[in-house]
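Worked Example 4.2. Consider the chain below.
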Amino acid sequence: MVLVAQLPAVCAACHSGRPQPVPDRKGLYRQPPFRELGIGCENCHAPGQLHVQARLKGKPLRGKIDNTIVNPDDLSPWLADNICMSCHEEGDARVLRSGKRYTDFRPGTPLSNTLLVFSPPRESRFCRRRLPWTPTTLLAMKP
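Applying the procedure from the previous section yields the following structure tokens:
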């Protein structure tokens, strides 16, 4: 295990490739701390081991969709947006679901299965009263 300058797992999940934080140990990571040095394919396309193995073996695709990898173009717009929102959704608080880690999000699944993003109250452009949350919190929930 190695200490990585107190890099929180919430940061490492988006700003590195396949981080390996030790659960409940702030800044502590397994060796190697990052399985990829940069933001890799799996951040947006999910684990690719099956995809790589199938392509190396020359296996043909079955149908129009390659089920060994997540392609955002093959998802509903809402699920595809969840992939981007996992790192790019602005908000003041990212709250993990009970028992979840930031690295548990898998592209192609609802972000709200792993975490919710909350923003501070603000005035609605439709009315003058303050809302208890902004629409941002609702984006991570299925319409």
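The beta strands are 2-3, 17-21, 28-36, 93-96, 115-118. Residues 70-143 form one domain. Compare this with Example 4.1 before moving on.
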